[in-house]
From TrEMBL, chain A:
<keyword id="KW-0407">Ion channel</keyword>
<dbReference type="InterPro" id="IPR024587">
    <property type="entry name" value="K_chnl_volt-dep_Kv4_C"/>
</dbReference>
<dbReference type="GO" id="GO:0046872">
    <property type="term" value="F:metal ion binding"/>
</dbReference>
<keyword id="KW-0812">Transmembrane</keyword>
<keyword id="KW-1003">Cell membrane</keyword>
<dbReference type="Pfam" id="PF11601">
    <property type="entry name" value="Shal-type"/>
</dbReference>
<keyword id="KW-0631">Potassium channel</keyword>
<feature type="transmembrane region" description="Helical">
    <location>
        <begin position="322"/>
        <end position="343"/>
    </location>
</feature>
<dbReference type="GO" id="GO:0001508">
    <property type="term" value="P:action potential"/>
</dbReference>
TrEMBL record, chain B:
<keyword id="KW-0851">Voltage-gated channel</keyword>
<dbReference type="Pfam" id="PF13833">
    <property type="entry name" value="EF-hand_8"/>
</dbReference>
<keyword id="KW-0472">Membrane</keyword>
<keyword id="KW-1003">Cell membrane</keyword>
<dbReference type="GO" id="GO:1901379">
    <property type="term" value="P:regulation of potassium ion transmembrane transport"/>
</dbReference>
<keyword id="KW-0479">Metal-binding</keyword>
<keyword id="KW-0406">Ion transport</keyword>
<feature type="domain" description="EF-hand">
    <location>
        <begin position="168"/>
        <end position="203"/>
    </location>
</feature>
<feature type="domain" description="EF-hand">
    <location>
        <begin position="132"/>
        <end position="167"/>
    </location>
</feature>
Amino acid sequence: MAAGVAAWLPFARAAAIGWMPVANCPMPLAPTEKNKRQDELIILNVSGRRFQTWRTTLERYPDTLLGSTEKEFFFNEDTKEYFFDRDPEVFRCILNFYRTGKLHYPRYECISAYDEELAFYGILPEIIGDCCYEEYKDRKRENAERLMDDNDSENNQEGSMPSLSFRQTMWRAFENPHTSTLALVFYYVTGFFIAVSVITNVVETVPCGTVPGNKELPCGERYAVAFFCLDTACVMIFTVEYLLRLFAAPSRYRFIRSVMSIIDVVAIMPYYIGLVMTNNEDVSGAFVTLRVFRVFRIFKFSRHSQGLRILGYTLKSCASELGFLLFSLTMAIIIFATVMFYAEKGSSASKFTSIPASFWYTIVTMTTLGYGDMVPKTIAGKIFGSICSLSGVLVIALPVPVIVSNFSRIYHQNQRADKRRAQKKARLARIRVAKTGSSNAYLHSKRNGLLNEALELTGSTEDEQHMTKGTSLIESQHHHLLHCLEKTTNHEFIDEQLFEQNCMESSMQNYPSSRSPSLSSHHGLTTSCCSRRNKKTTHLPNSSVPATRLRSMQELSTIHIQCSEQPSLTTSRSSLNMKSDDGLRPNCKTAQITTAIISIPTPPALTPEGESHPPPSSPSHSTNIPTTATTNIVKVSAL
Amino acid sequence: MNLEGLEMIAVLVVLVLFVKVLEQFGLFEPVSLEGNPPGQTKKALKQRFLKLLPCCRPKSIPSLSENSVEDEFELSTVCHRPEGLEQLQEQTKFTRKELQVLYRGFKNECPSGIVNEENFKQIYSQFFPQGDSSTYATFLFNAFDTDHDGSVSFEDFVSGLSIILRGTIDDRLNWAFNLYDLNKDGCITKEEMLDIMKSIYDMMGKYTYPAMREEAPREHVENFFQKMDRNKDGVVTIEEFLESCQKDENIMRSMQLFDNVI
């Protein structure tokens, strides 16, 4: 029952008076309204804009936020109004829904913002009225496509990490030539051979030179062997390519059924059939026909050209318009051909010998070609001929704009996708900078905090004041949170650059040392990370690393849990790297947990003496602050 | 020049096209259903000429276009305002606040201020989704439309409701009798009662328990007449109706249901 009609319920109940006298049995009791209160105005304050409505208006839809008791959570006692910290523009539409029973979608509103508001107020989007529903669905679909595109390309980047089987790499190489140089080479080679093959087919038929005997031969027959060799080479390349694709395809059955593979097969079949049936006179006619199919090789270019694919897709999606065009043209052709035939029947030596013969005239006239090989001679013929050409223009002009607009829409969509992908890189870079900025802020504040503690330990308090900068409450709470996480996991956050350096150092220094098979996972990760890195590119420590790598690096810890009997003094960098493996023996004599923060180099003046010589190759170092020996927890920090 | 068959047809086609083009320009009016006064032909001419040009398409519907569309527009733009609140208060037995609530609901569904039969039927059908309530709604409409002008204004609406909800039991019975008496001749015949009964049963729809039988309305009507028709003359007059209803306890009790509707 529509909500607006709820106001007419008293009328409907009153109209039941017509049933009373005819009823044979007594009526049930009517429900009484307990605490019947007067309808009151309630004030809804949405971000400062006040809306007022009757309470009963809102109660029409009891399963939404405003209609149920959920709105009591937003009641402000002081001002006696309901305060919502949301968009007032969208709220207008939502309140109108309660009033009129119809939910409208304003065109200027962003679809995701609108969806969020609807979700907040507990209203299903399906209630949107017919007037706005189509628009809403269109925008939503567009948005979903956009997001799907983004996700897809993101996944493609992420997916480089897991190792693919040989078959999968091959398939990826075939589909995206830009993944590796080999794929690119393959792509260009096949393109080149397609071009060669097509040009060969064309040039074969050109007459070149005369043979004594005054007969002009096409080049194909003159240099038969050369052309045959070229053809063989091309077909071999195509065959190899097809077989490779077939091997690499994730679903062979689907691959065989796809359009491109059919084109491939059709392109190479004539050659093989030609090989099989050599000089058989009967089927040589069919053989000639088969050679025509060689021209389909040109369609193989659609793998290389985005535009061709779009064109093909457009034609497929406009199938109904094309069908309509064809149908209406056929109808018109038949009508006019019949009329012209009978009109021209009387005139002598008329070219319109039969109705099918008139088809040619009609088609040529309707498409405004006008070859002039068939012209009407009688007056009636001329009149109908002119009507035919006028209507031809109309019939053809009607469906064409639809096809054109479809093509334009799909083409622009593709362009937009490419543009978005290009913009995405810049966007992601900016986001990354912001993220690293925030993590750097944490590291910075941590250093400052530790510096404070160090200063406290050493007793100097003069620098304390300017160390405690004005960090906002939120920032300090966030940092506290990260600190708690560090404490929980016994790992610490470090800077990118230093981690890389640590990585390289450990890889360099570990080769001479003997490694026990029971390497810690951490250690293994370190080396594997570095080895992976070294395999890929030779990074400078200052270069930026993709966001994913940063994450993985953050997971990798710099904690070396050392269970060693040596005093903390020897927990220098070099020893950290070298002794990590024995440190991880499960039975530790003394439980000493060292946390190493490897950070940006600090002035060595603050280095306490307890540190053994830092390796000269690394600019960064970690130091110990020897705390009281009784506590077994040594905090290593860099000052 | 002797024209043969097809040539004749060709020439005819050309002539027809020519005439149509002239019609568009308004230079040639073959048959006009309503004689346009000469003063308007010039305006019509200009308008039609302008209509052909794509740039000067008129935004509003010109007054000389189809009149049937115009009629519909007229009805929807007519706005009926009810008499003042005080007058309605005097005429009906509702309080001021009740009238306000009723009017707000009324105006929400019918912004133009009056309800026509189609609207009425549509509103009423929303309360009975399972069956077909259109016939009963028609009877109701005729009962509410006391001045029989084809539309129910707010005054009609509220005066009807006043009788049903705030009137005495006799008033209510009178109103019910008025509802049943389809031709308003003062007595209810068996056919009228059968129509009413059928319309009530129609509202139930198909899915009932026990299943609806064809003869159910007729039997019910027989029952009713047996109860109401004292002198067995085949019609029920107002006196018979009132008398019989006052004797029936069930009916009297059900009449009291309407006290608390608003």
